[in-house]
Design goal:
Layout: H1 2-34, H2 40-66, E1 75-77, H3 79-94, E2 98-103, E3 110-113, H4 115-132, E4 137-148, H5 150-155, E5 162-171, H6 178-183, H7 201-211, E6 215-221, E7 225-235, E8 256-260, H8 264-276, E9 280-284, H9 287-296, E10 301-307, H10 315-325, E11 330-335, H11 342-349, E12 353-356, H12 361-373
Parallel strand pairs: 2-4, 8-9, 8-10, 10-11, 11-12
Antiparallel strand pairs: 1-3, 3-7, 4-5, 5-7, 6-7
Helix pairs in contact: 1-2, 1-8, 2-7, 3-4, 4-7, 9-10, 10-11
Magnesium ion (MG) is lined by residues 124, 127-128, 201.
Length: 412
């Protein structure tokens, strides 16, 4: 556990900086692409930079996942629907030699989980099952309800008493020796040849399940096969409707935004992105500066875009001080990874939106617009005394998922 913790801290720290740097790269590349003066070949090159930055962001996300520092976007989720969603992709990746059988529990409990993460988990486990059955075999994906009693929990080191929805993935493949089984969740542990395995698959699965407050049990026998059981804590009520995939429209506006980020490169690119969208931007290099600048411009500022992690005074605490001056102030937090700071959780509870770093121009434009257009916005009487924006606001409200924080389970 100590080893996991320190690897996690290291990975989380690196990924935090990487997300800021990637955010700046993405921001400038997108601005380059949108520049009317850029020719076709320059635009192509900016596109290539953007593509590569997205690949790097994906890798960073994976590292954050095993470090359990991902920003989760949990919803009330029907795991059967998640299984359905990945099936067509899975069939393509698994090939004909492996038969896939799905056994869904009809009355499955609703899990509080991030759909994208569940998809990742299903893919990682299924691809491992495929690799374990080079001569073919059977892959079974099953869902089930399960209660863990305190007595039961005492028998398994990882188990936590409670009500669960289970996701079980089993195969009839080569199985694992005891030595392999002991190490499978270690990051970069792989028995596969160079270029085939990264050793990140199960480390990621482990991090994701843990971050959801759940746990995993594995059963494996050499020559027979392997079964993974993933326990996700369940919740009351019915599943949320599937999320609409956000449309690719840029949303513009002319309001005044206070933007705080201690990472200079990212602050500059974000400032330029917001300006490009028509907003008037007041940049701040720290939480303290943000609070001071707010005092001077309290009437003009319609929205705060605050980095969560800043030295001295972080985003959530800066927000707390600003909200004391004007309780109805709108806020979007930007973050590369999770924060468990109390004011952050409180702000989320009061409807603050969270934008995950690194973000795209579209994502930034949409979340800023939804924060500004949310019901209960500041009254029109306090219109900004700021320069009129070059671009007229075209308020297209878009449903942007609110990122909420799932606090880590007490039993780590
Ligand atoms: P990778 O697949 O890149 O090797 P993973 O973290 O996904 O990394 O898996 C780590 C190791 O665990 C694998 O290299 C393999 O030895 C073992 N393993 C994982 N899943 C299975 C399985 N279903 N059957 C047999 N061995 C497995
Ligand atoms: Mg794998």
């Amino acid at each position: 556990m100590q080893k996991f913790e320190s690897i996690g801290r290291l990975a989380g720290g690196i990924a935090h900086d990487f997300n800021n740097i990637l955010g700046a790269i993405l921001g400038w590349a997108e601005l380059g692409m949108d520049d009317p003066q850029a020719g076709k070949s320059a635009k192509d090159r900016f596109q290539k930079i953007t593509d590569q930055a997205h690949r790097a962001a994906k890798l960073t996300a994976q590292i954050l996942a095993f470090a359990r520092r991902q920003v989760l976007q949990p919803r009330k989720l029907d795991l059967n629907a998640s299984v359905d969603d990945v099936m067509s992709l899975l069939r393509k990746l698994i090939g004909d030699r492996v038969q896939i059988r799905v056994v869904p529990e009809p009355q499955l409990r609703v899990a509080l989980a991030d759909p994208a993460q569940i998809e990742q988990v299903l893919m990682n486990l299924s691809l491992n099952a495929r690799d374990a059955m080079p001569e073919g075999g059977q892959l079974v994906i099953e869902t089930r309800n399960m209660d863990i009693t305190p007595e039961h929990a005492r028998l398994h080191a990882e188990a936590i008493p409670g009500r669960y929805a289970l996701l079980c993935v089993s195969d009839t493949g080569v199985g694992m020796s005891k030595d392999t089984l002991d190490r499978i969740f270690e990051p970069f542990f792989t028995t596969k040849e160079m270029g085939r395995g990264t050793g990140l698959g199960l480390a990621t699965v482990y991090g994701i399940v843990k971050q959801h407050g759940g746990f995993i049990s594995v059963y494996s026998e050499p020559g027979k096969g392997t079964a993974f059981r993933l326990y996700f804590p369940c919740c009351e009520g019915s599943a949320d409707a599937p999320e609409l995939s956000p449309s690719g429209v840029l949303c513009r506006g002319g309001e005044t935004i206070l933007l705080a980020d201690d990472h200079e490169g990212l602050r500059q690119s974000a400032q330029e992105m917001l300006r490009e969208l028509g907003y008037h931007v007041i940049p701040a290099a720290s939480g303290r500066e943000a609070v001071d600048l707010f005092r001077f411009n309290a009437d003009a500022i319609k929205l705060l875009v605050l980095d969560v992690m800043m030295p001295e005074l972080d985003g959530p605490h800066a927000y707390e001080q600003i909200a004391a001056l004007r309780p109805d102030v709108r806020v979007v937090f930007t973050t590369g990874y999770t924060s468990e700071a109390v004011p952050f959780i409180a702000a989320i509870g009061r409807g603050a939106l969270v934008l995950q770093k690194p973000y795209t121009l579209i994502a930034l434009s949409q979340i800023v617009r939804s924060a500004l257009d949310a019901p209960g916005a500041t009254s029109p009487s306090s219109e900004p005394a700021t320069p009129v924006a070059a671009t007229p606001p075209s308020a297209i409200p878009v449903a942007v998922p609110v990122t909420i924080q799932v606090s880590a389970n007490a039993k780590k």
